[in-house]
Amino acid sequence: MKALIFDLDGTLVDSVYAHTLAWQRVLAGFGLPSPACVIHRRIGLSGELLVKAVAREHHRSLRMADVKQLEKKHKALLHKLAPVSPPLPGAKEILAHLHKARIPHGIATSGKRSELKRSMDALALSPSAVVIDGDMVSEVKPEPEIFLLCQQQLQVEAAQCLVVGDAVWDVHAARRAGILSVGLLTGGTSAQELYNAGAMRVFRDAAELLSEIDELGVKGGGPGG
Amino acid sequence: MKALIFDLDGTLVDSVYAHTLAWQRVLAGFGLPSPACVIHRRIGLSGELLVKAVAREHHRSLRMADVKQLEKKHKALLHKLAPVSPPLPGAKEILAHLHKARIPHGIATSGKRSELKRSMDALALSPSAVVIDGDMVSEVKPEPEIFLLCQQQLQVEAAQCLVVGDAVWDVHAARRAGILSVGLLTGGTSAQELYNAGAMRVFRDAAELLSEIDELGVKGGGPGG
Description:
The structure is a homodimer.
Chain A: E1 3-6, H1 16-29, H2 36-40, H3 47-57, H4 64-81, H5 91-100, E2 105-108, H6 117-123, E3 130-132, H7 145-154, E4 161-165, H8 168-176, E5 180-184, H9 191-197, E6 202-203, H10 206-211
Parallel strand pairs in A: 1-2, 1-4, 2-3, 4-5, 5-6
Helix pairs in contact in A: 1-4, 3-4
């Protein structure tokens, strides 16, 4: 393994539960009430796929204008419900370690660029880090495009990359991209769900991953790495 | 099976995610930051056990006065974050069915009596329903007391009761009480976690349970039941 590609929400920043409640309230306000657990398991998909999945359960189909409107309301409510997006245990430390060890790494998220700033600030991300967001691709997770673009920018073969994510959508998108993946429990998805999706290993959080990073065969990319 | 005993939060009302965020914010304000996923999996325990578990991870111990103060703040923030506690799919319907079929049933929750009113209103619970809350016992889940008290008030033997819950704590408390249990996914705990804890079966929600209730051997208790 020569490079790591991280999901953002639920993997590096603790935002999945706030996303869940914000989507639930916005959808209920639109006549699409849904249990929080149903929304929770769809965080990490694009807003469009999430909204469509809930609409489908109500036997409704939505126009693209509705989806855009719901996404806008979700963003506003999210910032109100969770003004900050705190880094998860080990998130800043693993990014700092990879930077110092010159191991190529990037972040690949379905979120839109305009929604990323507060997470980037919370993580104190180095300006050199590769960040792929939903605005840079035509289809987000569970499609593989977002991870493939990150992998290309890191200039490391897919077979030598490792995806780190908290949702089954990360694991599915990684498999479609031909990239192995490990799961973290920090998004609230269980270990068994992540293993069923195809994760090679599951760690409690980025801190546990960092403490056992050598077991994943992640080697330094720089001189003497 | 002659009687059903329901957990409340996450089983009948959709409150687990709001509880999670409220506890996270209150604990962070007390110098005990914790990932939402860690708190999520401890909803259903008493506030005291939840708070102590998080404090332990910070190598801190709390005085009982601190616990009381945190519980008070949690309750206030919960009402702010989630002014209503909507019934989960099938919750009202299964309670109405049991009432109509004269099948003894009750609710047994770790929550305090003062916190229950809005959930009871949302469920349109019949005044005859048995409700056991955290103020009525000396130890809440995962201790068995709460389920045993409910079972005694229903006047049905433990072996002929069935607990319905969404958290591993419900399943554990039921086992300690000698009562079989089934799990619901509506609290965001996965099927495998509920099966590992000892649930006999896992349903998506109370609506799915109701649609297959005859397979659980639940028979009407009244004349001709």
